[in-house]
User: What shape does this take?
Amino acid sequence: MASKTAAAAVDFARIYSKLGLGKETVASLQAFRKRHADAQRIHAQLSSQPTTVDVAHYRNILKNKSIVDEAEKILKDFKPVTYDVGAHVKAIEVFEAKAVENARVTEKKIDEELKDLQATLANIEEVRPFDELTVDDVGSAHPHITKAVETMVKKGKWTVPGYNEKFGNLSLM
Amino acid sequence: MPQLIPFYFVNQLSFSFLTLLALIYIFSKYILPLFTYQQVVRMYITKLSNK
Assistant: This one.
């Protein structure tokens, strides 16, 4: 499964430091990793232990052979209880699917944010000096100005109060 | 028929009225608002730079 190999290749140090995760998220992630490491350690420990009993050895040591026989019989009859892990596996798979979907949504969000940032960066890079600014630039940057002018014109208000005082009047009439 | 002479100017009259109407419409809708727009924008950026 692709997601499993991806999960195996995760660089956790980078995730902790670079992604800017919340404290809670990092803590739960660390707890999860610890649980996984503990489980792995215990599993390795247990699987390295011997699973067979040397009955002949006990038969040589002990005088009471019938106990040894009985123990051997019990040992032979013993069958480990089998657990149905299907439900657990299913739950884990559901959880994994959810996690992968969450990750995908986050990725999409980050992509959009990146696109926004790129646009802003392009804006900053292509910025022009103040004296090269055009009326349309200002209008597109602040659409409320265009709307205000439209309503002014509709109301028959063609002049701006204080304009002539500030910039003078060039008209000859 | 000299009494018809005034009617020879009807086409000129109607065309001049139509032209006048068209000019008024074009100026009031497309050209003159640009001046107001420019004035508003000038006031706006002047206020911005004074802040």
Remarks:
- Chain A touches chain B at residues 130, 133, 135, 138-139, 142, 145-146, 148-150, 152-153, 157-160, 162-163, 166-167 (CB under 8 Å).
